[in-house]
């Protein structure tokens, strides 16, 4: 029925559709018996309050109040540190492109002559090593094999940077290479010979077009470290080139990484020679294209700068909370052969543990104790005192490194490929934090294999031998027709029983030793003639390497239980892990 709007009736207006109101439910402030609105509200305002404009304004006001409340709740939950994260974001850092090798511009005759020269050099260099290896294989003499392995390491070191990197990559494939060779090749990650300061000066001045004195107020001619690709010097920047950290603090003391001479020359043809030569002896456990791409990224320091930027972006929250530090990098002083980053005042984990109690005798007896000079003993005593000083922090550092690895593997899919004790530092300036350095080597899983890898990690942690074996078969690159599947599954089952009996527990009730279990499984893979995908194999080796570092800091740390907890807590991890709630409940 049509009724007359109360205000319209009072003003003598015509009737228009208006829904009848329930007299019992509505407070009739505008009735004749309750004329409060007439007394206190002017007639024009009363008329305007019923207009379309007033209703639109009221709607906008309500929406504004709602948005303001939501934003206030968001800010309360968000916390002030995340504002700092956004304010501290560095400008976008585009991945570097491929660099054309300068030798490609040389004449064809020059290139042919250079390739013949390098091929002849490798033939002469490796001939004694190949003959010794064949002799050791024929005689099966352990002493002769040990001598051959030492000769192999020395030969690879003399082969140059590409050859040493090739050896390092092989050392990360225990699924294919024998354990004693793996252990020997791991030494290639340690200190390499340094180059003269004259080359450092020349390389810096060529890269930036300025005298070294125009950039640095002070520059140590003696390198503090030397690796396969480059060596590091300590220096002090001039004020106009100073860096700034997230707190706006000026940084002038820096580490200057300079590429060794001959690295470019050795990467021009050596990779082809290595793959063709070693291909006759054994199946190289990674593709040539993968190795070329990895090598290009490690000899171009712009990639290391990009990796550090990406790690800082992925770990913004952890950096603000003071858990982890990645060194600041100068974008102004960056070239493919030179990298300038903030100097970290502190010690690597390996340096601290090198300083174990110098008064402790070797358990094997005095004949196994290497004599040290008084200076070496004094240095070791100093490190031992630092080790005692940091003792109470080691459990915290182990937890930080574990969470860092879990995030890299399970959430970001961007993993530091060489996170050993020599690439993790602790600093008295930031005792609560760990500092991650040398980010030239990274690994990441292809998207098509990520869900299967996460399922594999889940199955390994919970002791599901069937899923572990199925995943390893899926990761195999060789022809599965020749594989005895039932026999392989039985061997994996027997292997895992030695290390895990239930979610996160070993047969002796202690935490599962995931590194030892991975090593045993990789040996079984090798026995059955399988070869894992390179991205999976390198991820597994990196996982074992990281667990070793964590256990070195805290032998009681339970990586498996921590991994299960991380999978359950992080919603970004594969949804299949939600079933773990049932498993953990039963546990």
Q: Can you tell me about this structure?
A:
The N terminus and C terminus are likely disordered. Helices cover 53% and strands 10% of the residues. The longest helix has 32 residues. The strands form four sheets. Strands 1, 2, 3, 6, 8 and 9 form a six-stranded antiparallel beta sheet that branches. A four-stranded mixed beta sheet has the order 7-13-12-10. A two-stranded antiparallel ribbon has the order 4-5. With 587 residues, it is α+β, with helices and mostly antiparallel strands. A hairpin with a 2-residue loop joins strand 8 and strand 9. It contains 25 helices and 14 strands.
Instruction: Tell me the overall shape.
Output: globular
Strand % is 5-15%
Radius of gyration: 33 Å
Biggest sheet, open or closed, and with what strands and sense?
A: 6 strands, antiparallel
Distance between the termini: 69 Å
Global mean pLDDT: 76
Q: Give the low-pLDDT segments.
A: 1-19, 21-34, 76-88, 356-371, 574-587
Q: Structural class of the helix and strand makeup? A: alpha+beta
Portion in helices: 40-55%
Helical stretch tally: 25
Total beta-strand segments: 14
Topology (elements, then pairings):
Blueprint: H1 6-10, H2 36-40, H3 43-49, H4 52-78, H5 80-88, H6 108-139, H7 142-158, H8 161-170, H9 179-185, H10 197-208, H11 212-215, E1 216-219, E2 225-226, E3 230-237, E4 243-244, E5 250-251, E6 253-259, H12 263-279, H13 288-299, H14 301-314, H15 316-320, E7 324-325, E8 329-335, E9 338-342, E10 347-348, H16 349-354, H17 374-389, H18 394-412, E11 415-416, E12 424-427, E13 430-436, E14 442-443, H19 450-462, H20 465-475, H21 485-497, H22 514-527, H23 534-553, H24 559-569, H25 580-586
Parallel strand pairs: 7-13
Antiparallel strand pairs: 1-3, 2-3, 3-6, 4-5, 6-9, 8-9, 10-12, 11-14, 12-13
